[in-house]
């Protein structure tokens, strides 16, 4: 018997979530500490849909992604679930805290793995106001370059560090602000043009993640 199974046998019913189409529930929890992957790997769930039984949310989401469930959808209660494109319902009717963030991080990684070196051979994208940018996603890293006039600024971060919104599936603002901070720390001059470029980068990242089929 696994350590996870022993945990469930000794746990009270209210200490873990239930993933179910009709009568599932998810406890409120603070996911602000550590990465989304780490948090979800330590959050137990009883899966009644995909047949995993007692497991953790990271394992459950990974299993759903491996079986082609790539679309984030808004539930009736305003939460966000995971399903296959073209389907009305999904095996995860509602994701827990950090779930949306983790799904988008994994989708971006999957897109990069399929491409080999996503964006490496692409031209720089104009964001207006004499500012252009380039995004390369490879080997678990997002490498970002900003060009304004003759000045180049580069920065990078791990995909698992990307601050995807956990409450909205297509909100570019959290990533845009994160990228702007990183570029300013790398020497970029804070200005309206930089903010526009960072929002363009965030939108591009989201488009890639949501484009996985």
Spatial extent as radius of gyration: 19 Å
- Uncertain stretches of 5 or more adjacent residues: none
The main β sheet shows up as: 4 strands, antiparallel
Task: Give the count of helical stretches.
Answer: 6
The portion of residues forming beta strands comes to 15-25%
Helix content: 25-40%
Oligomerization status of the protein chains: single chain
Count of all domains: 2
Structure class:
alpha+beta
Terminal-residue CA separation:
36 Å
What do the pLDDT scores average to?
91
Number of strands: 9
Q: Tell the overall outline.
A: elongated
Strand order, main sheet: write it out: 6-7-8-9
How would you spell out the order of helices and strands?
HEHEEHEEHEEEEHH
What is this structure's SSE topology?
Elements: H1 3-10, E1 17-19, H2 36-41, E2 44-47, E3 53-56, H3 57-66, E4 71-74, E5 80-83, H4 99-115, E6 125-126, E7 131-138, E8 141-148, E9 151-158, H5 173-185, H6 192-210
Helix pairs in contact: 3-4, 4-6, 5-6
Comma- or semicolon-separated keywords:
single chain; 213 residues; alpha+beta; 2 domains; four-stranded antiparallel sheet; three-stranded mixed sheet; 6 helices; 34% helix; elongated
């Amino acid at each position: 018997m696994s350590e996870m199974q022993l945990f469930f046998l000794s746990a009270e019913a209210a200490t873990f979530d239930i993933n179910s189409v009709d009568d599932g529930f998810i406890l409120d929890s603070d996911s602000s500490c550590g990465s989304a992957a780490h948090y979800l790997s330590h959050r137990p769930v009883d899966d009644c849909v995909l047949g995993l039984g007692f497991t953790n949310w990271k394992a459950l989401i990974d299993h759903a992604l491996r079986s082609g469930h790539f679309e984030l959808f808004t539930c009736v209660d305003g939460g966000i679930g995971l399903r296959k494109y073209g389907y009305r319902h999904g095996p995860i009717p509602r994701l827990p805290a950090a779930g949306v963030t983790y799904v988008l991080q994994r989708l971006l990684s999957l897109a990069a793995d399929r491409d080999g070196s996503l964006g490496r051979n692409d031209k720089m994208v104009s964001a207006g106001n004499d500012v252009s940018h380039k995004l390369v996603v490879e080997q678990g890293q997002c490498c970002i370059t900003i060009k304004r006039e003759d000045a180049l600024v580069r920065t990078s971060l791990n995909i698992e560090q990307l601050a995807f919104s956990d409450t909205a599936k297509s909100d570019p603002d959290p990533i845009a602000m994160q990228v702007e901070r990183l570029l300013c720390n790398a020497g970029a001059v804070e200005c309206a043009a930089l903010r526009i470029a960072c929002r363009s980068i965030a939108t591009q990242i989201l488009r890639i993640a949501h484009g996985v089929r």
